[in-house]
Design goal:
InterPro entries: His_Pase_superF_clade-1, His_PPase_superfam. By secondary structure, the protein is an alpha/beta fold. The chain has four helices and six strands; from the N terminus they run βαβαβαβαββ. A six-stranded mixed beta sheet has the order 3-2-4-1-5-6, with helices on both faces. β2, α2 and β3 form a beta-alpha-beta unit. α1 crosses α2 and α3 packs across α4. It is globular.
């Protein structure tokens, strides 16, 4: 059994003239990211895989998890099927993975994996999905939604 925690980056600033990729977190976003880390920590993630945008990187770092953090630019504008490809490449030694990304892809990923209707996935929200078998076999409909959290 594998556990995937899908986290949407926390609340980001909207500053005129700042490129979307370079937008950082608001104070509320920083607080929400720390709170998510407190809730995710007991699940003992083995790896955090995050988009390399400023707001997702900040979210991942503020989680305060002991797990290694890997940044991947491809997550920034990835479609759900591209996120699945990245997840399938995770090593078998990883039992619990945190994926930090962007909407609408992370929201759609959770619904596609589980078949559950998750109505909203606001900034800082996360879902915990249990998956049978290895990462390489993760596909639509193979997951079970265990928990969701919205800040």
């Amino acid at each position: 059994m594998k556990t995937l925690i899908v986290l949407r980056h926390a609340k980001a600033e909207h500053t005129p003239g700042v490129l979307d990729f370079e937008r950082g977190l608001t104070h509320r976003g920083q607080r929400n990211a720390r709170e998510a880390g407190v809730l995710i920590g007991p699940l003992k993630p083995d790896l955090v895989l995050s988009s390399s945008s400023k707001r997702t990187k900040q979210t991942a770092e503020l989680l305060g998890l002991a797990a290694p953090l890997e940044l991947d630019r491809d997550i920034y504008e990835a479609y759900t099927d591209e996120l699945l490809v990245l997840i399938r490449q995770v090593g078998p030694e990883v039992g619990t993975l945190v994926l930090v990304g962007h909407n609408p892809s992370v929201h759609e990923l959770v619904m596609g994996l589980t078949g559950d209707e998750v109505e909203t996935f606001p900034p800082g929200a996360f879902a915990v999905v249990e998956l049978p078998g290895p990462w390489s076999e993760v596909d639509s409909g193979t997951g079970t939604l265990v928990d969701t959290h919205r800040p």
